[in-house]
Amino acid sequence: MKNIAPIVWAIGPDFGAGDGSAELRRIVGALLTYGLLIAVLMLIVCAAGWAIGSANGSWQTASKAKAGLVVALLGAVLIGGALAWANWLLDVGAAL
Fold it and tell me: For residues 57 and 44, what is the distance between their CA atoms, to the nearest angstrom?
């Protein structure tokens, strides 16, 4: 009787088919850069509004500008973390 070698099928995803991680990394980096620029500009505008509102005795304006300053800081932190997270995900995806 003949020995029949078992046929091993290599079934799995073809990670080489989608070779766009460099393009995706560039697009994500550009979008996050614009987001970070907007957050920094918002930080400057809110700090100026807080200073002007406090100097003129308008506590409502100063309070709203202070809240905007906190939102701008949190946005900048989240955008920076999103960039690091997206780069990590792209590196993990390339290693699969």
Answer: 20
